[in-house]
Amino acid sequence: MQDLMKGKRGLIMGVANDHSIAWGIAKAVAAQGAELAFTFQGEAQAKRVKPLAQSLGVDTVLPCDVEDIASVDSVFEALRAKWGRLDFLVHAIGFSDKNELKGRYADTSRENFSRTMLISCFSFTEIAKRAAELMPESGGSMITLTFGASMRAMPNYNVMGVAKAALESSVRYLAFDFGARGIRVNAISAGPIRTLAGSGIGEARAMFGFMQKHSPLGRGVTLDELGGSALYLLSDLSGGVTGEIHYVDSGYNIVLMPRPDELKA
Ligand code: NAD
């Protein structure tokens, strides 16, 4: 199928480099004709994000730190002035102090709990509200990125798991709020990918390797596969789907116990 996203304009938030999940998604939707705008966090990141954006023909590349609500507002003012409307949104933003992405969840500090929740969960609500205001009467689509440690405990993911659980609940509430306007809100629960954010988690390499090995497909997922699933959720192909947490994790989430031969290995 071709041109699935032709005529659609979307905001991509969360490209840090060419390993970012947001970058995999941007490539997939651009290849299907979408017109894009990107945000970046801080000048150091601009040097990596601007050339990536240019390679897709994107000339709207705006600074945004979600801890600073004025910078979020500026992004939407710029989009209103440039496009006057928005058809889809990709929120691929997460952060927690890496000193607390190891050891016990019980030791999470109050300060890092609040900051993690603001950046990794509440920013989606604030951004979704602004994006919805720009979406046309025909509706729109939004996605965010989550991880299976929202539902089950695992070592080191700690406060990020709690924030992802709240983010997934936000997806359902936002889908409920915006449904009457034809705006769909979904999340992709991605299997482990080696990114900047991913590498901040204690013992990431060993744990991610375990998950990949013991998934039904016996391997990790690729940026292209995440891009393909995002394309489905952002395009009209998924017209009847909202409030969904869509797992793209080689099936790891369905496994209670590895196969006997894997237990012995
Ligand atoms: P990444 O490091 O490439 O992207 C994280 C992005 O969050 C960066 O662009 C960073 O600038 C942005 N960010 C952090 N704090 C911000 C702030 N205050 N304001 C604006 N932007 C901010 O890593 P990624 O793995 O592509 O992460 C994207 C999303 O995918 C995150 O929500 C992450 O939790 C989620 N996710 C990642 C994995 C994985 O294994 N990598 C698995 C499941 C879900």
Automatic annotation (TrEMBL):
Reactions catalysed: a 2,3-saturated acyl-[ACP] + NAD(+) = a (2E)-enoyl-[ACP] + NADH + H(+)
Binding site for NAD(+): 14, 20-21, 41, 65-66, 93, 164, 193-197
Pathway in which the depicted protein is active: Lipid metabolism; fatty acid biosynthesis
Entry keywords, A to Z: Fatty acid biosynthesis, Fatty acid metabolism, Lipid biosynthesis, Lipid metabolism, NAD, Oxidoreductase
GO molecular function: enoyl-[acyl-carrier-protein] reductase (NADH) activity
Keyword Transcription regulation: no
One Pfam family, short name: adh_short_C2
SUPFAM superfamilies in UniProt: NAD(P)-binding Rossmann-fold domains
Biological process terms in GO annotation: fatty acid biosynthetic process
EC number annotated for this UniProt entry: 1.3.1.9
Broadest EC class assigned to this enzyme: oxidoreductase
PANTHER family to which the protein is assigned, alphabetical: ENOYL-[ACYL-CARRIER-PROTEIN] REDUCTASE (PTHR43159), ENOYL-[ACYL-CARRIER-PROTEIN] REDUCTASE [NADH], CHLOROPLASTIC (PTHR43159:SF2)
Family: Belongs to the short-chain dehydrogenases/reductases (SDR) family. FabI subfamily.
NCBIfam families: PRK06505.1
Protein name, UniProt field: Enoyl-[acyl-carrier-protein] reductase [NADH]
Gene (name only): fabI
